[in-house]
Every structure is written in structure tokens, then in C-alpha cells.
Specification:
Elements lengths: L24 E4 L2 E4 L21 E8 L5 H7 L3 H13 L5 E6 L3 E8 L2 H14 L5 H4 L4 E4 H12 L11 H15 L5 H20 L9 H13 L7 E4 L3 H12 L5 E4 L3 H10 L3 E3 L4 H5 L4 E4 L10 H10 L5 E5 L16 E5 H40 L2 H24 L6 H31 L3 H12 L7
Parallel strand pairs: 7-8, 7-10, 8-9, 10-11, 11-12
Antiparallel strand pairs: 1-2, 3-5, 3-6, 4-5
Helix pairs in contact: 2-3, 5-7, 5-13, 7-13, 8-9, 8-13, 13-15, 14-15, 15-16
Length: 478
């Protein structure tokens, strides 16, 4: 399926917000008066409730917490397959809106549906079918969150608080890509659109107001951070990469991204040295020339599989003499170590092995955890604001209609009064305008306050019906 458009939710689909149970009523002259809206308990958390006319906002999925990598990697789909699945599930009419987030660490379905459980089963059955996986095998690993809990989860995911490495930046781009795919497929309705626009704003606030993403939590990046401290910047610093270990190569790439140049690569296998040098836009050097190369570089990253040190104290001493004691920084990621430990005793030599780097990573992880707590507070606050805004949304049309009706009455009566005062001065006219406006605002204050309170208590439907009846408002009024 090249196009993923299915029968989508109609334009203008209202936001979800709570109808709540039918409000009880007490007799009054001429009809029924809805009972006062229930207030949330002190310190209670406002919660969204499903609206039958819109459906329930939900997220269902599995992540690195519940599913092993063998399952996650099979279920993760490329963009074309995601489009096919989106088109299939929308064509069933079971969902009003849907978006699928598929990464190496999570596969999640965000949707709006009248029956979330059925929508979950339908979508994951289709996802599994793409990879020959049965729904029964996935069910034990799946989680589902609805309404307020779904909002909270989405905000945490976008802010990288639910990631395997808290604070990692990739997830935000992955979410934005998933949103773009759903938008292109026209399966992203107003509910999910508003949810993710707010989630992106929350993620930006977390990154701006906390340091949750500013501490290296990988060995390779920790090495780069240490090098930056020693040299006060890496622009123009020469690097020698010895060996072809994955962490060493990753560290070299991080150094290049920070402006390090030129890059030299040494490996016992000459073809491998040349290939890696090309990948890093560097120069391959013979393994036998290690000693001479030490004299011209500033940073050495080693990750060979040698059983004995390949860089000796004597070799480093000779290099220091040639470089006139300019600082030399070693990142020894190899196990066993590639650099003799006594090298660290030399002046202007800084050598960090894997244990040193892990200590840095552990300290940074603890710092990230502290910052993550600050980030969680931000998310909680933003969820509350988002929920309150969506709860208020249910009664906004009635408030607008009520204000429009009373404003029309005010203007008509003011015009009648001014017609009887043809000689009234501009000051008098302004005074009457202000007086009539103030009276209308005073009259509106109580019903508007009640409408908002009732909506937040889940009784908005009863109160809007009562206000429409009391003030003679048309249901199709703006």
C-alpha cells in the first residue's frame, strides 16, 4: 500500500474531555438544577475521562523495560511498513486517530478509539503480521495507558525520561518523524496533534531548564568530555586511533564532531586501517610507526585486542622529548590495557583507562538521575496544565455562546438608551458603554466559573445543557 490514507476522523473532530457520569439534579422552580460539581480532593490530580463522541485517548506498546531486544528488533518497522499498517487499521474504522512510534527501544501505538482494547489488539496484530509474530506472543509484554496517564507517558517519552539512557537526544527526533508520517497519512487528528505539539514544548523546557542531557553517560563520549577539559576545546587537535574496537571508533567520531583534526589511524591490518581512515576522513599510518606518530598528535585513542601493552613508557618519553613536553592525552579503552600504567607518572601525560572512564560515567549517571527528578516535576506540572486546558475545552463553546448572547442584548439595549439621549456627550456615551459592559461581565462571572468547575469535575455536559436551556442558547450557536 503506497498511500496510507484510510477513512479518517472528520475535520474539526473535538478534543477529548470528560463527560463524567450524569450529574444528579435537584428540583427548582421551572425545572431541574444540576447539583454542584464535585471538587477534586485536596492535592488530587485532575484526570481526563473518555468522551463517547470522541473516544478514549490511549497508548499501547512495549519497550526496553518489558521486551527483550530480540522482540523489539523484529517488531520495529521502517517508514513504508508503518504507512501500510496505519492505512490498514484506519480503514477498519476502529480508530479515529492513530500514530505509531517505532524505534529500536520501543514500539508504541498512540490512538483515539471508542474501544481501546480492541484497537490495541487490531494494531498489534497487524504490526506482528509484518514480521510473522502472533499477537498472543506479544500480549504479555504490552502495556496500555489511557487519558491522563497516556498524556503523562507521552510527555515523558518526548522528554527522554523513559529512555534506556535518560536524556539521550535521539528519541525526540524519532517522535517527530513518527508524527510526520501519521500527518502525511492523515491519521493524526486534532487530539494527537495537540498532544504532541505540547509534548515537544515540554521536551524543550526540560532540556532548557535542567541538565538531564548534559552529562556524558557513555564511555566513548566521557573520553571526549575529558579531552575537552584538558585542552580547553578540541578544535584543531590531532588524533591517533589505534585498533578497530567499536568504542574506540565511536570516541574518534565524537572527537571529529567536536572539531578534532587531523585524524590518523593505525591497525595491524593495513586494509582495515585504510578503510577506517577513509570513514573518518583521516590518514592511515603503518602500525610500526606508532612511536613517531605519538610525537605529532595530541590525543591517542586505543582499543586493540593485544595481550600486552603496545604503547610503552619509553616510547611516550621519546615522544614527549620530540614534542617539547606538550600535553599528550591517552584514552585506553582496551582490555587488557594498551598503554603501560606507569605512563601516567610522566609530566604532561594524561592517561584514562576503561575503569577511569566508567567512574566518570557512573558519576554522570548519578547527576543525570538528580536532574531527571527536576525534569519529572516539570512534566507533572505540564500534564496538569494540559489536562486542565482540555477539561475546560468542553465548555468553551457554551461560554462563547453565552457571552455572545448577552453582548448582543447589551448592545441592543444600549442603542435604545442612546437613541433617547441624542444630545449625550461623547463622555456620557463612553460612561454608559463601560457601565453596560461591566454589568454583563458581572452577570457572566458566576455561570462561567460554574461551567469551568463542572467540566473539571466531570459534569460539564449537565451544566452546559442547563445554561443553554436557561439562557435560550441555540445548540449551533458559536
Amino acid at each position: 500500500m503506497s498511500c496510507c490514507r484510510g477513512p479518517t476522523a472528520p475535520r474539526g473532530l473535538p478534543l477529548w474531555s470528560p463527560p463524567g457520569p450524569s450529574a444528579s439534579a435537584v428540583p427548582v422552580a421551572g425545572g431541574l438544577w444540576p447539583s454542584a460539581p464535585r471538587r477534586e480532593p485536596s492535592g488530587g490530580r485532575r484526570r481526563l475521562r473518555p468522551r463517547p463522541d470522541v473516544g478514549t485517548l490511549f497508548v499501547s506498546g512495549l519497550s526496553h523495560r518489558e521486551a527483550p531486544v530480540a522482540v523489539r528488533e523484529r517488531l520495529a518497522l521502517e517508514a513504508d511498513k508503518l504507512r501500510e499498517v496505519l492505512g490498514h487499521v484506519m480503514a477498519t474504522g476502529a480508530l479515529a486517530e492513530v500514530m505509531i512510534l517505532s524505534t529500536c527501544n520501543r514500539v508504541e501505538v498512540y490512538g483515539v478509539a471508542g474501544a481501546p482494547a480492541a484497537a490495541r489488539a487490531l494494531t498489534f496484530r497487524q504490526l506482528g503480521a509484518q514480521r510473522g509474530m502472533e499477537l498472543d506472543g506479544l500480549e504479555p509484554m504490552l502495556y496500555t495507558k489511557t487519558e491522563t496517564d497516556a498524556v503523562h507517558h507521552a510527555f515523558r517519552v518526548a522528554a527522554s525520561l523513559d529512555s534506556m539512557i535518560v536524556g539521550e537526544p535521539q528519541i525526540l527526533g524519532q517522535v517527530k518523524e513518527a508524527v510526520a508520517i501519521a500527518r502525511d497519512c492523515q491519521t493524526l487528528g486534532p487530539t494527537l496533534h495537540r498532544l504532541w505539539m505540547k509534548a515537544f514544548a515540554v521536551a524543550k523546557r526540560v532540556r532548557t531548564e535542567t541538565d538531564v542531557a548534559r552529562h556524558a553517560v557513555s564511555v566513548s563520549f566521557a573520553a571526549v568530555e575529558l579531552a575537552k577539559k584538558i585542552f580547553s576545546g578540541l578544535e584543531g587537535r590531532a588524533v591517533l586511533l589505534v585498533g578497530a574496537g567499536e568504542m574506540g571508533e565511536l570516541a574518534a567520531r565524537h572527537l571529529v564532531e567536536q572539531g578534532a583534526f587531523p585524524i590518523y589511524v593505525a591497525n595491524r591490518t593495513w586494509a582495515r586501517a585504510q578503510a577506517l581512515a577513509r570513514a573518518l576522513a583521516g590518514t592511515a599510518v603503518p602500525f610500526a610507526d606508532l612511536g613517531a606518530t605519538l610525537a605529532v598528535v595530541d590525543i591517542v585513542v586505543t582499543s586493540t585486542g593485544a595481550s600486552e601493552p603496545i604503547i610503552t613508557r619509553e616510547a611516550v618519553q621519546r615522544a614527549l622529548h620530540l614534542r617539547r613536553s606538550r600535553p599528550l592525552f591517552f584514552v585506553d579503552i582496551a582490555v587488557p590495557r594498551d598503554v603501560e600504567p606507569t605512563v601516567n607518572e610522566l609530566d604532561n601525560v594524561f592517561c584514562y583507562d576503561i575503569d577511569h572512564l566508567k567512574q566518570v560515567v557512573d558519576a554522570n549517571l548519578r547527576e543525570r538521575e538528580r536532574e531527571a527528578q527536576r525534569a519529572e516535576t516539570i512534566v507533572k506540572h505540564e500534564v496538569e496544565r494540559f489536562v486542565t486546558g482540555r477539561l475546560d475545552q468542553e465548555v468553551v463553546p457554551t461560554i462563547v455562546s453565552l457571552r455572545t448572547r448577552l453582548e448582543a442584548i447589551r448592545q441592543a439595549e444600549l442603542d435604545k438608551a442612546l437613541a433617547k439621549l441624542p444630545d449625550a456627550s461623547p463622555e456620557t456615551r463612553q460612561t454608559l458603554e463601560a457601565l453596560s459592559t461591566a454589568i454583563v461581565n458581572k452577570i457572566l462571572h458566576a455561570p462561567i466559573t460554574k461551567l469551568r468547575e463542572s467540566s473539571r469535575a466531570g459534569q460539564g455536559g449537565s451544566w452546559t445543557a442547563f445554561v443553554h436551556e436557561l439562557f435560550g442558547l441555540r445548540r449551533d450557536a458559536p
